[in-house]
Predict the structure.
Amino acid sequence: MKLYELGVKEAQEGVVKGDFTCADIVRSVIERFHEKNGEIGAYLTFDEEGALALAERNPKAVPIAVKDLINVAGQPCTCASKILRGYVSPYDATVIKNLKAGGFIPARRANMDEFAMGSSTENSALGVTRNPYDTTRVPGGSSGGSAAAVGGNMCIAALGTDTGGSIRQPASFCNCVGLKPSYGRVSRFGVTAFASSLDQVGPMTKSVEDAAILLKALAGHDEMDGTTPDEPVPDYPELIKGASFKGVKLGLPKEYFNTAGIDPEVKRITDEAVRRCAAAGAEIVEVSLPHTEYAMAVYYIIAPAEASANLARFDGVRYGHRSAKASDVFSLYTQSRAEGFGPEVKRRIIMGTYVLSSGYYDAYYGRAQKVRTLIKRDFDRVFGEVDALITPCAPTPAFKFGANQDPLTMYLNDLYTIPSALAGVCASSVPAGFTRDTNLPVGVQFICGGFEEAKLLKVSKAYEDCNH
Ligand code: GLN
C-alpha cells in the first residue's frame, strides 16, 4: 500500500509508531501528484519544497490539503479567482492554527469554484478539475478540488467549506465523507467570506472516523470569530466507538423524497440506505419540514446579499488584481472588478446588490430573513421528534462538463443541502453506493441539530459500518 492511500487514522498511527515520517507521506503524495494531477487537476499549486520543509520540521504530523480560500501564511490564496492571482496570505486562519496544534500540517491548495460559488468547480478561473471516478464528469463543487483529491487518493484528507452544500455535494460525487459543522462550531477567521451567516469549514475524508478526528482538531471557540460559542469540543473519535443504530430514531423528511427531478439511481440508492439503517436497528419515521420548498429562493437572496457586501473589498486597491486601464479612482474600482471577477461572481454581486437596494430590501432581503426563521423552526421542531434525518445528498450523481449551463439548473443541485445550511444545523454526506449504469458514486445525507456533531458522527459511522 502506498502512503498516499492512507486515511488520517492510519497515517497518525504510522507516524506515532515511527513506521514512516510526515516527510515520507509528503513525498508519496508528491509522487501521486505528478502521476495524477495532469488528469484530475485537483490542485492549483503545490509548493513541494515548502511542504517538504514543513514536514521535516514536524515528523509526526499528517499533511492535509486545503481549499484555496483558507489563508495559510506565506501561501497563495486565490479563491480560484483572477482577482486574487498573486496574492499571498500574511497570516494563518484559525482552522490552520488549530490543525497545526492538533498534529497536522497544511499542504497544497485545492481548486474550487471562484469564491465558492458553484456546484461543479467549472467556475474556477484557474483550472479544470475532473471527477476521479469518470474524468468526463465534474467533481461537484464548490470544494471540488478537495473532493477530487480525497476521492482520487491524492491526499490523506482535505478541508472544504460549505455555505449551501459545497462540502456535501462534492463528497457525494467523489465518494468521500464530508461533514458540514453547525454554524459556529468552527471558526471562520481567515476563511475568505462568501456568505458570512452560512459559511463553515469542515473535513472531507476517506472515513467517518477520519472526519471525527479532523473535526476535533478544527472545532472550538475563537476570540476572532464572535459566532463561535465557548462550548467544549467533545472527543468525537472516542464518542463514535461502538456506534450503532440501536435506539436511534431516524426521520425521513417527506419533502425530500417526493421531489421531481431526482435521478432514479439516486432514489434507489437512498431507499436502499434507509432499508439498511432499519435492518441495523434504526426506527424510521416519516417527518415533515413544511418550509423546504422556500429554501432555494431564500438562499439565493441571502447568500448573494452577503456576498455582495463581502466582495466589496476586492477593489483593485488593497488586494490582488489592479487594472492597467484605469484613469481615475472610480474606473480603478470598476475596471479591476470587471476584469477580475468571473461571470457567476458578477451575477451574485448584481443579485445581492439588487435585493439589498432601498426599494427592494423589505420585499426580498427582509422577507427572506423571516422565511429563514420558519425553516429553522422546522428543524428545531423535528429534532424534538427524531435523533437525525436521512435524505438524498444531491439529486443526481456527477454530471458531464457543460451539462448545467443554465445557472438555475446548477443551483438546483443544492436542493437537499441548502435548508440545513440556512438552519445552521450540522450535516454529513457518507458514501452509499454506485449507480448501476454509469458506476458513479452517490452519497447519502444525515442531518442533526445544532452542535449535535457527536450524534451526527455516530449515525454516519453506524451507517458506514452497515454499508460495508
Ligand atoms: N452551490 C451553492 C452556491 O453556488 C453552494 C456553494 C457553497 O456551499 N459554497 O452558492
About this structure: Residues 116-119, 142, 162-166, 194, 303, 414 surround glutamine (CB under 6 Å). The longest strand covers residues 426-434. The longest helix spans residues 362-382.
